[in-house]
Amino acid sequence: MKKFRKVLDGLTTSSPGGTIGSPSCGSAAGTPTAAPTPREIDVQETLVSENFQLCKTVRHGFPYQPTALAFDPVQKILAIGSRSGGVRILGRPGVDCYCQHESGAAVLQLQFLINEGALVTACADDTLHLWNLRQRRPAVLHSLKFNRERITFCHLPFQSKWLYVGTERGNTHIVNIESFILSGYVIMWNKAIELSTKTHPGPVVHLSDSPKDEGKLLIGFESGTIVQWDLRAKKADFRIYYDEAIHSVSWHHEGKQFMCSHSDGSLTLWNLRNTTRPFQVTFPHGKIQKDGRKESCKPILKVEYKTSRSSEPFVIFSGGLSYDKAGRRPTLTIMHGKAITVLEMDYPIVEFMVLCETPYNNEVQEPYAVVVLLEKDLIVVDLTQSNFPVFENPYPMDIHESPVTCTAYFADCPPDIIPILYSIGAKHKKTGYSQKEWPISGGTWTLVTLQMLYKLKTSKVFEKPKPGEGRAAELVEEDPFAVQMVSWCPQSRIFCVVGISAHIILYRFSKYDANTQIVSLEVRLQCESEDVISPSENENNPCFSEQGSHSPQPHHQHPASPGNRTPEGIKDSIPCLKVKDRVVRVPPGYQSELVIQLLWVDGEPPQQITSLDINSAYGLLAFGNCNGVAVVDYLQKTILLCMSTLDLYGAADPYQRLTRSPRRNRQSTSGLTELTDNQQSIDMERSKSPTSGNLLTHTHTHTCTSHYQNPYSLYENSRENSFSRSRSSSVSSIDRDTKEAVTTLQFGESYGRKSDALPTPCLWVGTSLGVVLLIPMSIPTDQEERMEEPVTIGPSGAVLMLKSSVLRFAFLDLVGALIQSPYEVWRDLNAPEDPDRPRRRKLVHFSPSSSQDACGDGHLAVVCSERQAKVFLMPSQSCLFVHNITESSFVLRADVVSVCNSVCLACFCANGHVMTLSLPSLRPLMDVNYLPLTDMRIARTFCFTNGGQALYLSSPTEIQRITYSQEMCDNLQEMLGELFTPIETPEAQNRGFLKGFFGGNAHTFDREELFGEAAAGKASRSLAQHIPGQGGVEGMKVAASGAVGELARARIALDERGQRLGELEERTALMMTSAETFSKHAHELMLKCKDKKWYQF
């Protein structure tokens, strides 16, 4: 805890840490300020560096670019590998764990150690990893790096500790799972095939042990060669040479037949009694043509052959469609008896897996579901019903239907908002799903989850543009309805969406459906020629007076009007989209009330909106772009203010403005929907940022260059526009052909002038030049007057200055507590009228002077820009504290958040650093180099919230949540769920005495005797390198980090030991019962046959 005291001398206009230049603390033009009496600010700061630590928490969404799939049939958990080296492990809804390989190599294959709490991953860098899933954060126990051969296929038999590994050279190696060391036992490709064969069989594409005899290993080579290898005799039992390449193999559970899928779209069924030719060859999707030939078909990439007691076997495969049917979607085919069902998928199939009742491959499989991993979705099909319905996916996989362009993160929402959103959203869900429970049901619940509540489509507000029409197509190349920015007030449930076509949609929430007509306002946010002011005119003739600045100027208001064109065909006063002008029926939920659109002016498209703020207590909405700022009264549906940035300054303009010639070219707007990881594109995207420090230029028509410029014209300058470039907007003369954009807006109770004695509603405006402008407002307090009397508003001329573009405002009281913005309590405008309880607006205000009798009037204003943070005292506008956040980079996102019952300023920089600063002293508390390289996706989606949390899109389909709170990091282990739960392994079915006697000696097969070092020797050290992991050590550290770590470990050990003893006791009892039954049957057989002669048998 540390006290900061600063004696404020109100006689001076700036403090020693003051802002740049005298205008930063200057008063309104020509308005003298009374010197406030000196007083002492006493703020006790409680946050210290020990309160902060940065770590990842959970990841939501669909794994980006998935590559592999695995399922544990006993634990009932699913694993998905990705191209970036990530592994997602899913269980029951709420169980979601993310792991990442340090190498970042693509995951080729996944293998669960069934019911053992472990997972083997094979990666593209030819490394095997063993993951420990018995801890809440899985970690690698062992790794094995192959040096001379490339891994192509792995197989781990159930309840075996020996992993078969096939390679690109055609060899098969064997790895001990416990020690993760290679066995000396190797099946070389030249021994597996006949010596007379002159060609290489190709890579190993399949390995599996025979259900009939575990000592027999079936090896499938890509060329079409299949070998059954006798592990004991170290020789081949049989060899099959087929003309078509093999993609997969699947056994019948009896071990007498197996099925292969081939590259020509055929399925071959082989019987072990005769391996010279296939028992059956089928082309499921290949029809016979008129000339008698079969249609050529695509490869069948995978097939699974599963048996059922009560019905015909299931043959399930992906691919195999004929080439003639172009444009058909990817399919999964289910052959059940004579019935063939083709399921079309929305995306290409990456992998699928049939879920069966038993983990034993020598028992009737009883399939009940199919998990289908698509490129952008996960689907589970119910096999127990004849129409094969899909299960409703309980995971938040589809976080979006199109690329994400922005995010907003809210913590501590009103408790009633989540249930009502869920109930409304649930009414719009699709029907026809399977009624059975989700089959992936393993693990225990985690406290950190993501639930899809509600979806809203903004395109329903507008008419569908006809082909060849639509002015938005000329403005943007992508979807004209793309969302650019959102603003939400959880208390009033008002929601605003800014679209890429320079439009804003305001929604209100209602639990009732309604017939409504959307009100449309059209704003001409463009400076006219008469508004151009030269430096000399600026000195003598302010563009507004104190009296006139409080009323809206009529020529800036443009109500809805039909579009028109000038005689020359130049577009003028027309919006980009057409709002529905008829009464529409809207369902319960968010219902559009108002649409604001910027207009084309003299053939120039409207500039994109760069900032937005809405305040439900005031009933006002403010937005800005590179031309200026506009304020809309959404209660009265009127435009209050529409003014250029220059007009906002008045006589307090700190810059010398130079007029320029008219613009030479017209540049269209580029969209936001394309997010790329390419660094060159990142640099070009950055040059289009609305906060890129562009300055203001005046022409005769007062139009300006778009901030979202054509990226191709910026290729040569992409290096200097990159994330790491150094930028400065501290210039005294503006002579470049650029504009000053409004980059941030904030409504709040503040002091618009130094002479103000009481706080009033104000709008704080921040620009790309680091300038802060204050606009006071006068709002009627009575509800009836508020709906009839106009709101008076006008700039005060108050100007504050920072380095670079302004990003964020926040207000603190004089004891350092955060002042929330006033809001209106939600009321349902569509609810039935109640004469006893008339609906009235209920406002909640947080005035700076409401609880500060001891501290006096005033408040602190926190302003953060791309380079700098400052704390001002209001109303004197004196700078108390200043901190230069970065010199070599710039801030992408800044928020004032509450952490540990206090507040701090959290910043995310373009160089990947995450920083926190104390308030109000701006002391650095944390600076972590979190992301080594940032891209535009992260830059646009990174956001902080209260409680030490933040999130961003780590990939186009995944949300990564992080915490910067030490307290949350300490409690994270308790918040995460368990992946592994102690479950007894199901017993194998009783095979019967005669079947077991004549069925071979599968149960007497001892792999240790064959593959152990004593029998097989050691493998060559140069073949593979063992790398010990940190999983065990990390697991101990994690368990010990909690307050009951030691007790937890002891309890788990006792539970596991008790479980093993219980299992042993049960098995002993079963053996005794079986022995007694066998003795009884043997005695009965002896009595029955005792008196018979030999010829009577």
UniProtKB/TrEMBL annotation:
InterPro entries: Lethal2_giant, LLGL2, Quino_amine_DH_bsu, V_SNARE_CC, WD40/YVTN_repeat-like_dom_sf, WD40_repeat_dom_sf, WD40_rpt. One of its GO terms (biological process) is exocytosis. It is a peripheral membrane protein. Residues 1032-1092 form the V-SNARE coiled-coil homology domain. Its main location: membrane. It holds the Pfam family LLGL. It is found in: Cell membrane; Cytoplasm. Coiled coil: none annotated. Residues 1-36, 534-571, 659-699 are annotated as: Disordered. WD repeats lie at residues 239-280. SMART domains: WD40. The keyword Coiled coil applies. One of its GO terms (cellular component) is SNARE complex. Keywords: Cell membrane, Coiled coil, Cytoplasm, Exocytosis, Membrane, Protein transport, Repeat, Transport, WD repeat. Residues 10-36 have a biased composition (Low complexity). Residues 535-544, 667-682 have a biased composition (Polar residues). The keyword Repeat applies. GO terms for molecular function: GTPase activator activity; myosin II binding; syntaxin binding. Signal peptide: none annotated. It comes from the Eukaryota. Belongs to the WD repeat L(2)GL family. This is Syntaxin-binding protein 5-like.
